[in-house]
């Protein structure tokens, strides 16, 4: 049609950061479509009493500050774990503009919390579900703890 289109340029430096365990389900798909890419891992565990996130492990590539970063976790409930993962990337020199948080299922309140704290981080989610359990703080659509379901370790 002769119209000019100013699109997006494909990033040449990409790092996928898996938030363990459940974020690992997306890593295989990323490895099959993004070549070459670097990978990192972050393990954040919620305190069983306070539900506050605690960092247990982080291993990120040395040059991550120069890369587009895809942070991968299967769910966003309160947004606390996601915000800690984002903060870890920022502490390693990654620009907010270069972070995309990818999740399968999220709550609207979790995504709003992330957007309020980090307005330049992009969030990509397949489904928003507002139903959270009052006691266990899990999404109540039968989804449960995705890592347990995926890896066959649910009780």
TrEMBL record:
This enzyme's EC code(s): 2.7.1.48
InterPro entries: PRTase-like, PRTase_dom
GO MF entry, a single one: uridine kinase activity
Transmembrane segments: none
Domain (Phosphoribosyltransferase): residue spans on this chain: 5-153
UniProt entry keywords in alphabetical sequence: Kinase, Transferase
Pfam families (UniProt xref): UPRTase (PF14681)
Protein name per Swiss-Prot or TrEMBL: Uridine kinase
The gene coding this protein: URK1
């Amino acid at each position: 049609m002769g119209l000019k289109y100013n699109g997006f340029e494909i990033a040449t430096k990409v790092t996928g950061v898996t938030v363990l365990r459940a974020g690992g389900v997306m890593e295989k798909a990323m490895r099959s479509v993004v070549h070459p890419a670097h990978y990192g891992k972050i393990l954040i565990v919620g305190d069983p009493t306070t539900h506050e996130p605690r960092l247990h492990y982080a291993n990120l590539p040395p040059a991550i500050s120069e890369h587009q970063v895809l942070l991968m976790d299967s769910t966003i409930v309160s947004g606390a774990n996601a915000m800690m993962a984002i903060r870890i990337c920022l502490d390693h020199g990654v620009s907010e503009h270069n972070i995309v948080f990818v999740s399968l299922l999220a709550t609207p309140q979790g995504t709003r919390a992330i957007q309020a704290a980090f307005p330049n981080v992009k969030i990509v989610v397949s489904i928003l579900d507002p139903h959270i359990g009052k006691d266990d703080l899990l999404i109540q659509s039968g989804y449960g703890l995705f890592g347990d379901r995926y890896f066959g370790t649910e009780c």
